[in-house]
Design goal:
This protein has eight helices and seven strands. The protein has 205 residues and is an alpha+beta fold. It has two domains: 141 residues, Electron Transport, Fmn-binding Protein, Chain A (Pnp Oxidase, Chain A); 35 residues, no CATH class.
Length: 205
C-alpha cells in the first residue's frame, strides 16, 4: 500500500496555494511598536524548544501583563517562575538555543510569533526588576529575536477561545490531584489534592 504521508516540500506545496504577498512580507527581524504594545499586554506566552535528541517541547509561561520585558528591538527577557523543577525548557536551551514564542492577549484573536535564540541569565541586576511579592526569579530567558510576525486570528476564532460560552464546568474534568494520584500511584487522591492546593496557594512566586 502506498504511504499517504507527505515527505517532501514539493509534495507539500502541491496541496497548498502559495502564500499571498502580504503574508510573505509580514515577517520582520525586529520588534516594532506594534510588537512592543502586544507583548506589554500579554500575560501568557508559550515557549517551544528542542532537546538534544530532537524531541520537541512546548511550555506555558504566565504572569501579569508587562512581566516579559522588551529590552530593545531585538531582545526580550522572560522570567522563569517557580514550577515543578523539571527545567525542561531551560535544559533544552542549553543544548539547542533556538526557541519559538507565541504571545497571547485575552480578548484578541491575533497572536504574536517570535523566533530567536535564547540563553539563561542569572544576574541579580537583570533579574531584580522581575520580582513579584518580593521574590526574584532564579533565572530568566534572554531571547535574541531573529524573526517576528503577527499570526491571524482564525485559529482562536475557530476555537472560540475567549468566548465565555465555550468554558466548561471545572467539575466536568478530573482535577490535577486525581490525575497525578492515578498516573503516578504515589499516595491517595486526597494527598495529591492537598499537595496541588498547597502549591497553588503558596508557590506561585
Amino acid at each position: 500500500m502506498t504511504d499517504p504521508s507527505v515527505t517532501t516540500l514539493s509534495a507539500l506545496r502541491e496541496i497548498y496555494q502559495e502564500p499571498s504577498g502580504v503574508v510573505r512580507h509580514k515577517e520582520f527581524e525586529r520588534l516594532d511598536d506594534f510588537c512592543r504594545q502586544f507583548i506589554a499586554r500579554s500575560p501568557f506566552v508559550c515557549i517551544a524548544t528542542t532537546a538534544a535528541d530532537g524531541t520537541a517541547d512546548c511550555s506555558p509561561r504566565g504572569d501579569p501583563p508587562g512581566s516579559v520585558k522588551v529590552v530593545d528591538d531585538q531582545t526580550v527577557i522572560i522570567p522563569d517562575r517557580k514550577g515543578n523543577n523539571r527545567v525542561d525548557t531551560l535544559s533544552n536551551v542549553l543544548v539547542n538555543p533556538g526557541v519559538g514564542l507565541l504571545f497571547l492577549v485575552p480578548g484578541i484573536d491575533e497572536t504574536l510569533r517570535v523566533i530567536g535564540h535564547a540563553k539563561i541569565i542569572t544576574d541579580d541586576t537583570a533579574l531584580s526588576p522581575f520580582a513579584i511579592s518580593g521574590k526574584v526569579p532564579s533565572s530568566a530567558l534572554k531571547v535574541t529575536v531573529q524573526k517576528v510576525f503577527f499570526h491571524c486570528g482564525k485559529a482562536l476564532m475557530r476555537a472560540r477561545l475567549w468566548d465565555a460560552e465555550t468554558k466548561i464546568a471545572r467539575d466536568s474534568f478530573p482535577t490535577l490531584g486525581k490525575i497525578l494520584a492515578e498516573q503516578t500511584k504515589s499516595g491517595t487522591v486526597e494527598q495529591a489534592e492537598a499537595r496541588v492546593a498547597e502549591s497553588y496557594a503558596k508557590k506561585l512566586y
